[in-house]
Amino acid sequence: MSHGEMSRRENRQAAVAAATVGPWKTAAGVGAVVGATALGIDLVTGDWSLSMLAGPAGWALFFFFLVGTVGGQLRRDTADRRLRRWAAEHPWQSAMPAAGALLVLNTLAQTILGDASLIGAFFLSLLPAGVLLAVAGVVGSVKQARGKG
């Protein structure tokens, strides 16, 4: 291994550290607004039960992680230049912690608040986690390509 290479463990730690630089307060606000809006729509049009909370919780989690992850990739004021450079060079890896967290938290929300079994909730949560990974990875890749040009 040459001097510039990082181990798998170091790459995982860098990905988690890169995930922390996002605008998480703004993301929490956006997630809350989206979740409250979805809940309001369900209250007006939906079937009144505990399971009506699962959909709005899923929307809130998705937008929380989307804004936090993409915002972190677009942010330029990160204090640690090495971390910012690593995230720019590895856009897909830096999006993995958020996609994984969304997968786990949405699975739990769909299981606890909804009518889905654990396996059903897991498969239901794969789509939003995959979309988050794709959007964040593409945004990071485009930012990386524009930075080199």
Structural features, described:
There is one protein chain. The protein is mostly helical and 149 residues long. The protein is built from six helices and no strands.
Q: How is the secondary structure organized here?
A:
Layout: H1 8-19, H2 24-45, H3 54-74, H4 81-89, H5 91-113, H6 118-148
Total helical elements:
6
| Shape by Cα distribution | elongated
Give the helix level as a range of percent. Answer: over 70%
SSE series: HHHHHH
Provide the low-confidence segments as ranges: none
Kindly estimate the percentage of residues that lie in beta strands according to DSSP: under 5%
The major sheet is characterized as: none
How many DSSP E strands? Answer: 0
Distance between the termini: 29 Å
Rg calculated over all Cα atoms: 17 Å
